[in-house]
Amino acid sequence: MVYRLLGENGPRVSVIGYGGWALGEEGWPDVESLLALRSLEEAFDRGITLYDTAPFYGRGLSEERIGTVLSSVRKQIVIATKCGIQWDDSRIWLSLSRDDILREVEDSLRRLKTDYIDLYQVHWYDQKTPLLEVSKTLQELKRQGVIRHIGVCNFSVGLLAKAVKWMDVVSVQTEYNLVNRKAEEEILPFCQKASIGFLAYSPLAQGFLAGRAFDPQSYVKDVRKHHPLYKTGQWRQITGGKEEAFRFLLRAEGVTAFLVSMTRPSHVRENVEIVEAFFSS
Ligand SMILES: NC(=O)c1ccc[n+]([C@@H]2O[C@H](COP(=O)([O-])OP(=O)(O)OC[C@H]3O[C@@H](n4cnc5c(N)ncnc54)[C@H](OP(=O)(O)O)[C@@H]3O)[C@@H](O)[C@H]2O)c1
C-alpha cells in the first residue's frame, strides 16, 4: 500500500480509503451486513488506514460498525467523520450551529468508541450559520484535542477561500471521477496551490464505472436512482471498468486519496490489487 500526507499538516493516509456510506446500509439495499463487517477487517488487513464515515450514514450505523470492528486497532487508523446533517423521524436538515456540532461530536465519539477523531469534516455547509462561528467551534474542538484535524466537503472555492482564513483546513472532500471532472475547474487547483489535501469521493460513480448492472425495479430505496448516469440511462454505455477509474485518480495531480464504498471483502481485495499493481508497474 502507498501512503500520503493529507495536506501539509494532516495525517498520513492510504491512497485508497474505505468509504463508509454503504456500510450504513440505508439507501444501499444490496448490502449484506455480515459481509460488510468482514469488508472492514479485510480493508485493515490489506493496509487501508483511512476510514471515512458520517453520522448520517445509516443514521449512526456506519460509525457504530467502524467503532465495533476497528476499536482494537484504533491507533493505527485514521477516522474521518463529519458534522452538519441532522435528522428526526420525519425530516432531514442541515445545521452547523455550535450546539448541534457539540452534540454531534459527542455522539460520534460514543458510536466510534474513541476519545478523539482524526479528521472532522463539515459534511455540507448549511448556508445559515456564519462560517466564522462554525470555524470557532471547530477550532475550539481542535484545541481541546477532541478532533485532530479539520476538513470540509462539498465547498465551493469561494467558501473554501474564506474557510482557510478562519480555520486550519487540512482537506477538502469532493466528488471526482472519470465522468464528473468538475473539480478540475477550480477546487482541485485551489487545493494544490494552498497545499490542502484532496479526497475524491464516488470514484466509481456509485458503482456505474465498475460496470455494475442495475435492476431499475430494485431502485425504489436506492441512492443511485438519483445519479445523473442512471437518470439519463448513460450507465448502460459505460466501458473501461474499475481499473481505468482508479488509475485515473491515482494519476491525477493533487488527489491525495480516493474513498470507495466496499461492502464485500472481494471488492476490497480487487480494489487494493488494482492500486498495488499501479504502483508496482
Ligand atoms: N462527503 C460527501 O458528501 C460524500 C458523498 C458521497 C460519498 N462520500 C464518501 O465516498 C465514499 C464512496 O462514494 P460512493 O459510495 O458514493 O461511490 P463509489 O465508491 O464510487 O461506489 C460504490 C459502489 O461501487 C461498487 N464497488 C466497489 N468496489 C467494487 C468492485 N471491486 N467491483 C464492482 N463494484 C464495486 C459498490 O458495489 P456494491 O454495492 O456491490 O458493494 C458500490 O455500489 C462513500 O462511502 C463516502 O465515504 C462522501
Summarize the structure in words.
With 281 residues, the chain is α/β, with parallel strands linked by helices. The chain has a single domain (3-280), classed as TIM Barrel, CATH 3.20.20. The protein contains nine helices and twelve strands. It has helices at 33-45, 61-70, 98-112, 131-144, 157-166, 187-193, 228-231, 241-251, 265-280; strands spanning 3-5, 12-14, 16-19, 50-52, 78-83, 85-87, 92-94, 117-122, 147-153, 169-175, 197-201, 257-261. The strands form three sheets. Strands 3-4-5-8-9-10-11-12 form an eight-stranded parallel β-barrel, surrounded by six helices. Strands 1-2 form a two-stranded antiparallel sheet. A two-stranded antiparallel sheet has the order 6-7. Residues 19-22, 30, 52, 123, 153-154, 173, 201-207, 210, 212, 242, 259-264, 267, 270-271 line the site of NADP nicotinamide-adenine-dinucleotide phosphate.
The hetero compounds bound to this protein are: NADP nicotinamide-adenine-dinucleotide phosphate
Helix content: 25-40%
Our count of domains comes out at 1
Largest sheet: 8 strands, parallel, barrel
Q: Over the alpha carbons, how many angstroms does the gyration radius reach? A: 18 Å
Mean pLDDT rating: 95
Give the CATH architecture: Alpha-Beta Barrel
Overall body shape: globular
Q: Return the string of H and E elements.
A: EEEHEHEEEHEHEHEHEHHEH
Q: In CATH, what is the homologous superfamily?
A: NADP-dependent oxidoreductase domain
Query: Looking across the biggest beta sheet, what order are the strands in?
Result: 3-4-5-8-9-10-11-12
Percentage of β-strand residues: 15-25%
Q: What is the number of helical segments per DSSP (H or I, 4+ residues)?
A: 9
Distance between the termini: 13 Å
> CATH class, please?
Alpha Beta
Please give the number of β-strands: 12
Low-confidence stretches: none
Structural class: alpha/beta
CATH topology: TIM Barrel
